[in-house]
What does this fold into?
Amino acid sequence: MPIIPDTKNWTWVLERPCAECGFDAVSCTEREVAEIIRSNAAAWPAVLERADVAVRPDDSTWSGLEYAAHVRDVFRLYRTRLILMLDENDPVYADWDQDETAVVERYSEQDPATVAAELLEAGSALADAFDAVPEDSWDRPSRRSDGASFTVASFAVYLAHDPTHHLWDVRARP
It folds into this structure.
């Protein structure tokens, strides 16, 4: 059973506030995403310093360490996709099985300090890449292999929800 919600049905993220974390894509602009990423990345080291960072609250919920490793990889993947979108005309990029990656990469066994450093680096690189998007490139299209279509702008705002929600996931715990 996947731990992360199904991302195939993604459009709601852009249409209404998230009922859980409160992220509101409607009031977010693509130019705000770089700062959202920087702020989000800066919050993860404190999560990764927790004594219980590797403990899952239940069998179907990732630990703080697993969420942080996932966010690091999301930042890396989205930077690669953003570069592809800016370099190619209407590229199609492969889906990413985040649950499989968590198992293969052994998220639950990674060193929290290393994940913190890598997450900060990946977040900074992605934020810098969004800051560098030329004004005339925000409407450039792309597609996932499952048929979901994005512009650079909708891709940016869609992305901003993921790390925001995952930080809420780990802070919302008692």
In short: The domain at 35-171 is CATH 1.20.120.450 (Four Helix Bundle (Hemerythrin (Met), subunit A)).
